[in-house]
Amino acid sequence: MLYFRNDYQVGCIPEIMKALEANNSNIYMPHGQDVECQKAKDVLQSKMPDVHIDVHFVSGGTIANATIFKAILKPYEAVIACKTAHIATREAGAIEATGHKVIIVDDNDGKITPAAIEKTFNQHMLGYGMMVYPKAVFISNATEMGTIYSEDELHAIHDKCKELGLYLILDGERLGVTLMSGVGYTLNDIAKLCDIFTIGISKNGGLFGSAIVITNPELEDGFPFVMKQTGAIMAKSWLIGLQFQVLFQDDTFYQLAKHEDELSIQLQNALHNLGYPLLMKAYTNQVFPILTNEQFEYLSERVDFDIWDEWEGQYIIRLVTGFTTTQQDINDLCEVLKETAKIKLKK
Amino acid sequence: MLYFRNDYQVGCIPEIMKALEANNSNIYMPHGQDVECQKAKDVLQSKMPDVHIDVHFVSGGTIANATIFKAILKPYEAVIACKTAHIATREAGAIEATGHKVIIVDDNDGKITPAAIEKTFNQHMLGYGMMVYPKAVFISNATEMGTIYSEDELHAIHDKCKELGLYLILDGERLGVTLMSGVGYTLNDIAKLCDIFTIGISKNGGLFGSAIVITNPELEDGFPFVMKQTGAIMAKSWLIGLQFQVLFQDDTFYQLAKHEDELSIQLQNALHNLGYPLLMKAYTNQVFPILTNEQFEYLSERVDFDIWDEWEGQYIIRLVTGFTTTQQDINDLCEVLKETAKIKLKK
Amino acid sequence: MLYFRNDYQVGCIPEIMKALEANNSNIYMPHGQDVECQKAKDVLQSKMPDVHIDVHFVSGGTIANATIFKAILKPYEAVIACKTAHIATREAGAIEATGHKVIIVDDNDGKITPAAIEKTFNQHMLGYGMMVYPKAVFISNATEMGTIYSEDELHAIHDKCKELGLYLILDGERLGVTLMSGVGYTLNDIAKLCDIFTIGISKNGGLFGSAIVITNPELEDGFPFVMKQTGAIMAKSWLIGLQFQVLFQDDTFYQLAKHEDELSIQLQNALHNLGYPLLMKAYTNQVFPILTNEQFEYLSERVDFDIWDEWEGQYIIRLVTGFTTTQQDINDLCEVLKETAKIKLKK
Amino acid sequence: MLYFRNDYQVGCIPEIMKALEANNSNIYMPHGQDVECQKAKDVLQSKMPDVHIDVHFVSGGTIANATIFKAILKPYEAVIACKTAHIATREAGAIEATGHKVIIVDDNDGKITPAAIEKTFNQHMLGYGMMVYPKAVFISNATEMGTIYSEDELHAIHDKCKELGLYLILDGERLGVTLMSGVGYTLNDIAKLCDIFTIGISKNGGLFGSAIVITNPELEDGFPFVMKQTGAIMAKSWLIGLQFQVLFQDDTFYQLAKHEDELSIQLQNALHNLGYPLLMKAYTNQVFPILTNEQFEYLSERVDFDIWDEWEGQYIIRLVTGFTTTQQDINDLCEVLKETAKIKLKK
C-alpha cells in the first residue's frame, strides 16, 4: 500500500525528536511561560523584522481558530469565509459554538475576492442592527483546495479589510508549502498584511502544534485568558516551543515544504499526462484528480487516499505529499496511476 | 404619507384591547401557568384535532426561534435554512449565539426543496464526525419573499425530513396570510407535517406574541426550562393567551389575514399593469416592485416603505399590507404609483 | 381566597390601559425607533438631570440581565453576585448560557459588601490568567429578600467598584418600592452610582417591561445589536415606552410604590405583634414570616402565597403587596393571620 | 534552586520517549482512529474487566472537562462541584463558556458529601422550572487540596447520585497518586462507580494527555462530535495512545504514583516535625504548609513553589512531588525547611 492520505500521517523529523529527548529532563515553567516558548517567539520575531508580533502556541488548528474568533469578536460580530473554508466545514461548528456566525461568500477555487467581501459587507450594512456585523475575514493560505493567494491578491484583500474596518485572519496550517510554492512573498510580508495568522507545523515536520501570531496590538489583550478558557494552553507548552525552534532556526521548515511542493508538482504533471481530469490546478502539496468508479476501486486497493467528493459515479480524490514522502513513493504511485488510467480506456 | 412599511406598525384589533381591559384586574398565576394560556391552548388544540399539541406563548419571533433550536439541537447539530431565512439574516446571529450553525442551502424564491436538503445532508455525511450534523430543517411559510409552499411541496419536504431523520420546523410569523392565500391546507395539516411550528399574531391583529406549537412529543421535555433561560417567558403570559383566544375562537385570525391578502393581490395587479418589474410573484401580503433611482426618490417622499435590496441604481422595495390597511389606502397608493411610473417614461 | 403571591399577578393601572387604547391605531416605527420610546427616554432623562443616560426598553427582567452581561463582558470576564441574587437562582442559568460565570460572594440579608467584593477580586488576581476575571458586580435593590441598600452602602460599593475597575450593575425590578422606603436617595443618585441599572414596571403599575439605563458611555456601543440577538427587542416597543411615560410623567410610579411599602410595613408590624418569627426585617413590599407545619396548612387554604424555603418542619413563606392591594385586603389578611397564629398556641 | 512547583514541570519517562521515537515513522490514521489508541483502549479495558468502557484521548484536563459537560448536559442542566474544584477555579470559566452553571456546594477539605448534594438538589427542585436543573456531580480524586475520597465516601456519593438521577463525573488528573495512597480501591472500582472519569498522565510520567473513560453507555452517543467541536481531538492522537500503553501495560503508571506518594508523605512528616502548621493532612503528592512572611521570603530564594493563598501576613504554599523527584531532592528540601523553620524562632 502507498500512503498519500494526508500530510500528518507520521510523527516528526528526527531533529525534533532528538531535541525533545535532549530537553526531556529540564524543569520548565508551565502554560507557555517557559524559556523554550520565549526562544521560539524570538526566532519567529527574527523572521518578521518589520512587525512586532505576539505569539501563542497551541496544540492544533481547530482550537487555534476557535480561540482566535472567540477572543477578537464581540457577541454580534461575525467572520466572513468561503464555503470550503476549514472553519465552515471540518471543524464541526467550532466557531458557531463560540456564538459567532460564519458568513459564507463566493470564492474562486477556494479563494475569496475583495469584491465578495465588499458585497456581503454592504448587504449587512443594509440590515444594520438587524443582521450580524461582519468584523473579520478568514482566509486559508494555502486553501483547502491546494490553491494559493498571489501577493497582489493578498494586498487587495488587506486593503479592502482596512477600508471596511475588518480584521484579516489567515489560517496558515499549510503556510510552509505556500511560501515555498514560488509566490514571492515571505513570512514577514504575511505579518504585515494580516491582523492574526497561524503557522502550523503538524503537516510540515512537527509532531503537533500551531503558532498564533498576533500582529495587531489591539487584539493582544486578554488573549491568554481566552486560550485558558478554551483549553488551548498545554501544561507543557515548551514541547511546542522547542519544535518551532528546530524548524525555524535553520530554515528546516522551508526546506521540508519545498520538498513537499516539488513532489506534488511532479505528481500533478504525471496525472495530467496520463489524462486524468483535475478538479483544479494545484500549487502546493495537494492534488485532486477525478476518477471513474472503476478507477476508484482499482486505486483504492493499492493506495491509501482521501475522498474529497463524489457525484454521478465520479470520485474526486485527494493525493497529498508529506515531508516524509520520497521520490520513490512518487515513482511507485505514478506506476499505479498509469495502470489505473488504462481502466478507463478498456471501457 | 401612506404607510406600507410593515404589518406590525399599529397596535391590535379593538376586540383584543377590550379583552385586555376587561380582564386587567383579574388575578393570574405567573409565567404561563394561568387560565388564559390554558384556554388559548384548548382553542388552538380544537383547530388541530388530528394531532396532540403542546403550546408555549412567547413575546416574539426571534426569541421563539432561538429558544426552539437551543432546546432541540445537541451541541454539534445544525439547522438547514435558505439564505433569505429570518434566522439566517435578520436575527443578528441569534441561532449561532446558542452555539448552532445555520447551514445555507439553495432555494427557489425563498423556498427550500427536498433535493437541496438531501444534497447538503449527504455532503455532511461524507464529513461525518468532522462536520456538524444536520438535524433540523427550517422553513418560513410565508417566506420572507412573500412566497408560499404548496401542499405538495410541504409533503415532499416532510417526507424527506422523515427519511433523513430531520426535524421540520416551520416559522409561522405570517402563517395567517399563508393559510388564506388559497393554498388548500389548514392549521391541522401544518400540525401533521411539522415537528414544531410557530403562529405569530403581532402581524395579524395582535399586540404581540407568538405561539410555539410542539407536535413531536419527544421535543416537549425540558422546553419550559430553556424558555426560562432565554428569557422568553413573560411574567404576565396571560396577556398573550388572551390575545390568541380572541383571534382564534371566532376565526378572526383568518378573516384579518384574508383581508391582507386581498388588498395585496390588488396592489400587485396594479403594479403589474403599471409596468413595474416585480422581484417575484407574491401570494401573500408582501409585494416587491423594482424601482429606478428617480422613481425611488419620488415615492419615498409620499409613501413609507422598506428597502429590500439595491444594486446598479435600482431599488427593490417592499410594500406590505396590514390588518388595518383599507381599500382607500390601496386606492391612494395606486394613484401615487401611477404618477411614479410615469417618471420612467419621461427619461 | 386572599392573594399575596406576588406583585405581578394583575395587569396594569387604568391610566396605562387607557393610553394603550388611545394610541392603538397610531402608526409607529418598529423595534424601539418610535416616538413613544423617545418620549419615555426624555421623561426618564428629566428625572436624572446629572447624568447622560442611554435607555433601552425590553420585555422583562431575565432577558434584561442576560442582555446586559452578554453585552458588557468579554468571554473570560465574570460577574460577582450573592447567592440569593436573581441571576444566581431564578433565571435558569441565563447568564451562564451567555458564557459567563456568576461568582458567588457572601452577603448580609441579600446584600453584598465592599469587603466581600475585594476579597473575591483578590483571590481571582492570585489566579490571574487561570481563573475568570471579575469585571462586574451585580446587586438587586430591593434585594430578593426585601432588604435595601442604604445610601452609604451604595456609595461604598460604588467606590470599591471604581477602585477595582468593576462595573456596578443594579437590578431595579423593584426599584420603585426601594426609592419610596425612606432611603433618602433618588433615581438621579442611582444613575450617578451605577454603570447600568434597570427599572422594572411589571411589579409597579405596568403591564410588562423593563428599562435598561446605561450611564457609562463606554457600554453603549453595540448594545442594540446584542438586544436584537437575544430577542429582547419587541417589534412594537412603543407599548413599553408609552407605559413608562404614564408612570413617570406624573410620579405615578412613586405613588404606587409608596402604597405598596406602606401596606407591607403594616403587614409586617401585624405579623410581629402576632408573634410570628420573621426571616428578616423587611423594608419594601415583601415580608417573610416563618410558619409551623400546621399554620402553613391552615393559611394555605385561605391565602395564596409563595413558599420561600422549608426545613425541619418549618416554612418560610413570602407575602407580597402589589399596587392593587387594598387596605381591606390587609385587614382581611391580618384577621386570617390572627387565627393562624393561634394554631401554634393550641399545640 | 530546588523545584517543587508542580508535578508537570518535566517531560516524560524515558520509556515513553523511546516508544515515541521508535514509532515516529509509522503511518497512522488521524484523529484517534489509529491502532495505538485502539491498543491503549484495550489495555485500559483489561484493567477494568467488570465494566464496558468507551475511551477518548485528549490533550489535557481543562479541555477534557469542558468537552464532557458540553456533551452530557442539556442547555438548562448544571453540574454540582465544590468551591475548590478545578472547574470552579483554574479553568477560566471553561464550563460556563459552554453555557452551563457550576453549582457550588459545601465541602470538607475539598471533598463533597452526599448530604451537600441532596441539599442543593432539593433547593433546586423547590425552584423547578425557574432554576437550573442539577444533573451531574463533579469530584476530583485526589482533590485540589491533596485529599482523597475513601471507598465508603465514593460509594455513598455514587448511591446518592443514582437516587437523584445525577451523573457522577470524576476528574482523575491525579488518579494515579490516589490509587497508590492506600485507599484500597482500584481503577475497576472507579469504573463501576462513575459515569465518566478521566485519567491524566501529564502529572504521572507522560508528556501530555488525558483519557476520558465513559462507562455509562447512554453518554457515548455524539461524544466524538463534541470533541471535534471543542478542538479536543489531536491530528496525531496516536501520540497519546502510545503513552497510555507504555504507562499501563506494565503498571509503570502505578509505580510512578507510589513513588510520588511516598516522598510526599516523608515531606509532610518532616514539616510536621519541624513545627509547620499544615492547611490539612495530605494523602497524595501535594503538601500545603503555612509560612510566615519571613519564612516565605527565605524559602522563595531557595525553592521554587506555588502560592496557594495568602492572608494576614501568612502564606499557604504548595509543595508537590513529581515522578522525577528523588530522595536526594527531599533530603535537600528538608534541610532548607529546617533552616526556614528557625526564622520563626528568631523573631
Automatic annotation (TrEMBL), chains A, B, C, D:
UniProt keywords, alphabetically: Aminotransferase, Pyridoxal phosphate, Transferase
Single Gene Ontology MF annotation: transaminase activity
Metal-binding keyword on record = no
Source organism superkingdom: Bacteria
Q: Which example biological process does GO assign this protein?
A: amino acid metabolic process
Q: Which family does it belong to?
A: Belongs to the threonine aldolase family.
User: Do you know which PANTHER family this protein is assigned to?
Assistant: L-THREONINE ALDOLASE-RELATED (PTHR48097), LOW SPECIFICITY L-THREONINE ALDOLASE (PTHR48097:SF5)
What is the official name of this protein in its record? Aminotransferase class I/II-fold pyridoxal phosphate-dependent enzyme
Q: Which organism is it from?
A: Absicoccus porci
